[in-house]
């Protein structure tokens, strides 16, 4: 064995030892008994990592969370068979793909009666103050479990994920992160470690494409009653329409969606499930250079996967309306329900609209959101741009208020924008402003920038 390989094995063993020790300390807090966890581990450990077993560990320059290139995997949901992969076992920062692990803990608690959809979640100062994107929750209020889950699966709201995670961890981010890690290892996600429920940057929070495929498969097959949450196009929250920002839902016929994720270091990440002729595939893509690249590659990967599987026996997988027993995998064929309607949600402590706008002043995001954008003004002052974005957002009640900036002739210009729109809403915003003799123009999705998601 080469020295580099030996060092890689030693580092991996030490990391696993420390994590397993932490998991042992948290054993009493986990919902499932040790025997059940061990059985669950064996059940999802359906592919041996040949590359690692044979010592095929890449050099540090070619591997690790910051290594160049895109990692991906395509998996058959019914069998767990890997159809294609590239660097699927390379560790990456998960960004908001982390929220899938938080949702797993929530789904488990819901299925075992420890939570219900209307359980109130207190919003702590820590949850209210996390970085965008978020629902702009306020410390001291409460939201329901369903509102938090919808906020996570549509907008990828970090405040909703933090509130839900803190509740699941008995008020402790550290405790829920330990539970997430132990649960991941029980599922066979051997290289995943979690440090928070939202996916905001932490150098010790890592996963790989293979592990994310295991998690996606588990969520889809073991909790079919919650599968619709990943495909909800939007939901109403305190008078606002919260959009689903997963571009695959509109780009790919049969897409279930699942999760997007971005941070500066993690880059653009995507977990997508799709069904064609009753056959479900799962795709995971990590460290793409842009959303356009990520969406286009995922489309090609899924198309190739379905083409390769076209001659294989078909196992029908569809959304069930009640929990399935753990022994039943895949679930039996059931009639596919109609598309999920737009859901309506409200805070348990509703405030007047003018107060909501005032509280939101400090929460206008400068991050970029997929979709069409209406630019509603350009100013020398960030404060003026923020005020304009909030004003138009409050009048039109669509999209997300955002402030962007650009340097023109050595002078910084602040741009007031309404982001996350569809084409029709963007046109309506600008048409209303032009009737009022105000400047407005539309920016298409192809001119995307970065988003902290």
How do the strands and helices of this protein lay out in sequence?
Blueprint (H helix, E strand, L loop, with lengths): L2 H23 L8 H11 L5 H4 L17 E6 L5 E5 L11 H14 L8 E3 L2 H4 L13 E3 H10 L3 H11 L4 H15 L21 H14 L11 E4 L2 E4 L4 H4 L3 E9 L3 E10 L2 E10 L2 H19 L33 E3 L7 H7 L12 E8 L2 H15 L3 E9 L2 E11 L1 H13 L5 E3 L10
Parallel strand pairs: 5-10
Antiparallel strand pairs: 1-2, 1-9, 3-4, 5-6, 7-8, 8-9, 11-13, 11-14, 12-13
Outline the biggest β-sheet: 5 strands, antiparallel
Helix content: 25-40%
* Rg over alpha carbons: 22 Å
Percent of sequence in beta strands: 15-25%
Count the E strands: 14
Output the strand order for the largest sheet: 2-1-9-8-7
Q: Distance between termini?
A: 41 Å
Q: What is the molecular shape? A: globular
* H-E order: HHHEEHEHEHHHHEEHEEEHEHEHEEHE
Number of helices: 14
Assign the structural class, choosing from mainly alpha, mainly beta, alpha/beta, alpha+beta, or little secondary structure.
Answer: alpha+beta
> In terms of per-residue confidence, which ranges show pLDDT below 50 for 5 or more consecutive residues?
1-11, 13-61, 312-363, 448-453
Q: What is the overall pLDDT average?
A: 77
């Amino acid at each position: 064995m080469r020295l580099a390989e030996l060092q890689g094995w030693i580092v991996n063993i030490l990391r696993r030892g420390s994590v397993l020790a932490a998991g042992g300390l948290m054993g009493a807090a986990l919902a499932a008994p040790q025997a059940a966890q061990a059985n669950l581990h064996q059940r999802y450990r359906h592919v041996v990592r040949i590359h690692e077993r044979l010592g095929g560990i890449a050099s540090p320059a070619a591997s690790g969370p910051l290594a160049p290139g895109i990692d991906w995997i395509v998996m058959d949901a019914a069998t767990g068979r890997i159809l294609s992969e590239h660097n699927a076992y390379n560790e990456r920062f998960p960004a908001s793909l982390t929220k899938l692990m938080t949702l797993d803990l929530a789904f488990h608690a819901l299925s075992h009666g420890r939570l219900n959809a209307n359980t109130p979640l207190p919003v702590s100062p820590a949850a209210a103050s996390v970085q965008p994107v978020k629902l702009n929750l306020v410390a001291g209020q409460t939201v329901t479990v369903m509102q938090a889950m919808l906020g996570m699966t549509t907008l990828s709201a970090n405040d909703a994920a933090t509130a839900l995670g803190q509740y699941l961890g008995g008020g402790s981010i550290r405790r829920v992160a330990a539970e997430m890690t132990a649960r991941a290892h029980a599922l066979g996600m051997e290289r995943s470690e979690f440090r928070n429920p939202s996916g905001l940057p932490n150098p010790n929070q890592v996963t790989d494409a293979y592990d994310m495929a295991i998690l996606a498969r588990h969520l889809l097959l073991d909790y079919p009653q919650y599968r619709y949450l990943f495909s909800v196009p939007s939901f109403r929250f305190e008078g606002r329409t919260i959009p689903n920002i997963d571009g695959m839902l509109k780009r790919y016929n049969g897409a279930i969606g699942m999760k997007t994720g971005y941070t500066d270091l993690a880059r653009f990440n995507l977990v997508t499930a799709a069904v064609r002729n009753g056959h479900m595939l799962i795709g995971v893509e990590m460290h793409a250079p842009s959303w356009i690249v990520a969406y286009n590659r995922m489309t090609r990967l899924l198309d190739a996967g379905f083409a390769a599987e076209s001659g294989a026996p078909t196992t029908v997988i569809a959304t069930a309306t009640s929990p399935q027993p753990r022994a039943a995998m895949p679930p039996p064929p059931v009639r596919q329900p109609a598309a999920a309607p737009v859901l309506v949600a409200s805070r348990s402590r509703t405030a007047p609209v003018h107060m909501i706008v005032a509280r939101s002043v400090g929460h206008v995001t400068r991050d970029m959101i997929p979709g069409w954008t209406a630019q509603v003004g350009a100013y020398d002052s960030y404060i003026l741009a923020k005020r304009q974005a909030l004003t138009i957002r409050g009048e039109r009640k669509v999209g997300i208020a955002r402030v962007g900036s650009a340097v023109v002739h050595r002078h910084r210009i602040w741009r007031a924008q309404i982001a996350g729109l569809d084409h029709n809403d963007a046109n309506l915003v600008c048409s209303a402003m032009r009737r009022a003799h105000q400047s407005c123009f539309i920016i298409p999705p192809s001119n995307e920038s970065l988003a902290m998601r």
